[in-house]
Write a structure and sequence with these properties.
Layout lengths: L4 E3 L12 E3 L3 H26 L3 H4 L4 H50 L3
Antiparallel strand pairs: 1-2
Helix pairs in contact: 1-3
Length: 115
Amino acid sequence: MSHAVRRQQSSGPSGGAGELRRSGGPWTRASATAGALGTSTETARSALGRGHEGVAAGGAGLTAVAALAGLRKSWEERLAAVRDECEALRGALLTVAREMGETDTAVGNSFAGRR
């Protein structure tokens, strides 16, 4: 059976017997990396907002404040797009991990009686 997906043998909070659960195969690791990148991107986006708190009040009347606000909005949109793309990629990679694991299981089962 592949490292990407293994059959769960016991029932519990994560599912009943025979359900698929993902383990540390390459597709699952890639999915986790995409998820981690999405999370860190969202953390950076939030920090960007916090870093700009009080700037408008402290720089009232300065044209640079308006330019900075536009720049901040642009970066927040970019970071949100990266976060969303990472989430979509994470899900797609988990789907591949599941499908590859199911295929590996089916092929392994087809040879089980021939050993």
